[in-house]
Write a structure and sequence with these properties.
This protein is mostly helical and 126 residues long. The protein has one domain: Helix Hairpins. It is built from five helices and no strands. The longest helix has 31 residues. The chain is elongated and about 75 Å long. The protein starts with 7 loop residues before the first helix and ends with a helix. The model has no long low-confidence stretch (mean pLDDT 88).
């Protein structure tokens, strides 16, 4: 696998997203950063699966291509279609959970939710 300059952007986007998730105090920002992290992974693997000078894996191109390494690998692209669907589902579930948490605690801040949950727990213990 050759490393290209175009691989740097998804890698940087991935690590910036992880850093943002670590320091985020807002649930909405966390969800957006998770989506960005998923997009960075998808961009990286699509870049790995398609390089300059390779031909698509279509039968009419096989007669013209003498080098079998010059044919693009379709597996990363097929797996990324699955990753896109999973990413949509994760985002939908995250937004649904955020809606439920906001209705219960009336905030989108992680620490305020945590404190409110501790207060609820203390009330339930007594």
């Amino acid at each position: 696998m050759d490393f290209h300059v175009f691989d740097i952007f998804p890698i940087l986007l991935f690590f910036v997203s992880i850093f943002g998730i670590i320091i985020s105090t807002n649930v909405v920002k966390t969800i957006v950063l998770i989506v960005l992290m998923q997009s960075a992974v998808i961009l990286f693997w699509l870049g790995v699966g398609s390089r300059f000078g390779v031909h698509p894996p279509i039968f009419e191109y096989f007669a013209y291509v003498a080098d079998p390494d010059a044919i693009a690998d379709p597996l990363p692209q097929a797996l990324m279609l699955t990753a896109i669907i999973i990413g949509i589902a994760v985002t939908a579930i995250s937004i649904t959970m955020l809606n439920s948490l906001f209705r219960k605690y009336r905030t989108v801040q992680w620490l305020a939710m945590h404190d409110a949950a501790l207060v609820d727990e203390q009330k339930n213990i007594k």
